[in-house]
């Protein structure tokens, strides 16, 4: 299987992403599909916790209503794909809603 990669371009430099479609195929397809459609273009990292994480990709950050910031998405959810991959520094993850799936 060909390796799936992507690059997030920021004013601070590029972030290179490597995906694992054999471990989380639906999440890889979702992220790459949204990226190809331009869903993430122009979005920011709206939540930054130094030494812990950065969170971004929310199209709502452009809204003047700041209560909507961090709450945007594509309008659907995908089923969780729990696995044994280590969740360590540099891991790309999808935010989860209250939906248990």
CATH architecture of one domain, by name, is Beta Barrel
Radius of gyration: 14 Å
Question: What is the terminal-to-terminal distance?
Answer: 27 Å
List SSEs in N-to-C order.
Answer: EEHEE
Strands of the largest sheet, in order across it?
1-2
Quote the beta fraction: 15-25%
What is the CATH third-level topology name of one domain? Answer: Cyclophilin
Helix/strand class: alpha+beta
Inertia-based shape: globular
Main β-sheet: number of strands, strand sense, barrel status?
A: 2 strands, antiparallel
Q: Which whole number gives the mean pLDDT?
A: 87
Please report the total strand number as a whole number: 4
Task: Find the CATH superfamily of one domain.
Answer: Cyclophilin-like
Q: Regarding CATH, which class of one domain?
A: Mainly Beta
Low-confidence stretches: none
Number of helical elements: 1
| Proportion in helices | 10-25%
């Amino acid at each position: 299987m060909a390796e799936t990669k992507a690059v997030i371009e920021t004013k601070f430099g590029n972030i290179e992403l490597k995906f694992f479609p054999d471990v989380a195929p639906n999440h890889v397809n979702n992220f790459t599909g949204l990226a190809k459609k331009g869903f993430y273009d122009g979005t920011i990292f709206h939540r930054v916790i130094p030494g812990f994480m950065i969170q971004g990709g929310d199209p709502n950050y452009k809204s003047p209503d700041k209560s909507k910031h961090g709450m945007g998405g594509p309008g659907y959810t995908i089923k969780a794909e729990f696995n044994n991959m280590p969740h360590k520094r540099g891991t790309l993850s999808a935010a989860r809603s209250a939906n248990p799936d």
